[in-house]
Structures are given as C-alpha cells and as structure tokens.
Amino acid sequence: MGDPGSRTKIRETIGLIESRSGTVVGLCDLVDCRGPLTAAEFRQNARKAGMAPADAILGGYANTYAWVLANARRLKTPVPYDHPSGAVIWVALDDATERALKRRRTEKAKPASPKRVSRIEDGDQWA
User: Residue 22 sits in which domain range?
Assistant: First the structure.
C-alpha cells in the first residue's frame, strides 16, 4: 500500500510489485489519499489494510496516511521490470515495460488475491 508515512497526490492506475520478484504482478487505481489519520481512524479501518484492529498501532511515522485503492487486479502474466537502486515507493518504468502493461490492461482481469494485493475492495472508504 505504499509508504504509510507518505502522502501522495497521484490519482491514476499504478502497477503492483511483489517484493523481490522483479515483476509487476497487478494493477490498481489509486483514487485517494486520506490523512493524516488519528489512532482511532487507523484502528477503525485496520481490516481494510489487512490487519486486526488490535494490531493497528501508529508508530514510526510523524503522520500516517491511507492510500485508497480500487479495481485491484492480478495480471495473468507478470511483467518484468528493472528496479533501480534506491527506489522505495515509486519506480519509473521504462517504455517497453509501460507498453507491456498497457497491453495487459485489456486482458480479462483476474480478481486480486488478498494475500498479494491490498484487501481494500472496490468502493471501500476510509472513515
């Protein structure tokens, strides 16, 4: 879900990268960024981020934000990409990778696996 200590103004389709895989495994629409969240808001919405409310403890960041995702879908075939050194939150994809992802957008989408992609479902909203 990005960096919980980071606000973003991006509102577009983004690629989902499985850590250390070297591939873009899915796509989703980044539709909003909420926050900074209070501890109560974070706990109230914990299940949308795949955790139990008791485990939703703010810490380590001056502010915590929720990136609101919609239309998450796993690609039938992951798309390889080059991960530049130092890239943590955003990776600028080369033209060939962008073209491959544009072709995949028209594939019949597979529902995203909740183990791999955010458990936020279409239409879920942070309180």
Answer: 13-111
SS3 94: coil
Distance of alpha carbon 123 from alpha carbon 49, whole angstroms: 14
24 beta partners: 17, 79
- Is position 41 within any domain? yes
How many separate domains does the chain show?
1
Has this prediction a pTM greater than 0.70?
A: yes
Distance CA 101, CA 108 (A): 13
CATH number of domain containing 43 = 2.30.130
pLDDT digits 0-9 by tens, 54-112: 998 887 788 888 899 999 999 999 999 988 888 878 888 889 999 998 888 766 655 55
Q: Given this model, what pLDDT does residue 110 score? A: 56
Pick the closest to residue 117 from 47, 82, 69, 77 (CA basis).
69
**Where is 73: in which H helix or E strand?**
strand 66-80
Spatial separation of the C-alpha atoms in residues 72 and 66, rounded to whole Å: 16
